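User
Class, as today's exercise, I want you to study this protein, comparing sequence with C-alpha cells, and judge whether sequence predicts the C-alpha cells.
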Amino acid sequence: MDIVRLLAGRQYRLFAVVQNGSVQVRDFIDSIEEQEQAHFFALFDRIIEYGPPKNTKKFRHIGDKVYELKTNGGSRILCFFGTNFLKNSLILTRGFPKPKPTQLRREKQKTLKILNDSKNLRIIKI
C-alpha cells in the first residue's frame, strides 16, 4: 500500500493513503466547502506542531486503533497512528461528509483493512 506525505511539523507528520493513483483524502478535502476545508487545515496545523488534540469533538478514538478527525460541520477523516518508521505520524485513510451510523461502520472497515496491511506501507511522491 502506498502513502504520500501531506504535511510535516515539529511534532507530527501527516500521510495519506494512495489507492489506484488517487489520494482520496485530498480529493475529499478539495470537494468540500471552503469553511470545512479551513477547519481541517487548522486541525492539521495543530496536529503537526503540537500532536493530536485532546478535544474529543475534534479527534476521537472510534475503536480498533482507528481515529476520526472531525469538523464542526460534521465532515470526517479516518486515520490511524503510524508505527515503526512512521512514529509520530498519522495515516489519513478516508474522508467523507457527516455519516449515518452504517456509513461510519463501512468506512471504519475500509480503514481497518488498510491498517491491517500497514506493515507494507511505502512512501511515494505524487
Summary: Helices lie at 24-31, 34-50, 101-116.
